[in-house]
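Title: Request for sanity check on BlaI/MecI/CopY family transcriptional regulator prediction

Description:
We are preparing a figure and want to confirm that the structure record we downloaded matches what your pipeline produces today. Could someone re-run it with the sequence below and paste the raw structure tokens into this thread? We only need the token string, no images.
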Amino acid sequence: MVERISDAEHEIMEVLWQTAPLTATEVADRVADAKGWSLQTVKTLLSRLAAKAVIGTERDGRRFLYSPLVERDTYLAGVSRKFVDRLFGGKVTPLVAHLAEADELSDDDIREIEELLRELKG
């Protein structure tokens, strides 16, 4: 399992999962409007992710290119499992029940869950 990454680091990962490799400037350009982060902030986050071995770096002349070393699906599976284990004793049913009781599930969500369950059974 990948070491936990912060919400800010996750934003950087989402950019790299969409398109990689990218330079720090390219990553900063993609998060600038939404987050307002400076290039230095992005470089700090990239350094942290590299130290956690979540992204790799490759020298390209005077700059570095950054690419994810962990697939998005693999990361999300691990984080989801840890979440369910920690908060719901490893069981998904209490999570879904909690969301349903808190009116967090729309009719579309319920239909999609029902469809998924049919596919899993069939």
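Thanks, this matches our download. Residues 23 and 63 are 7 Å apart (CA to CA).
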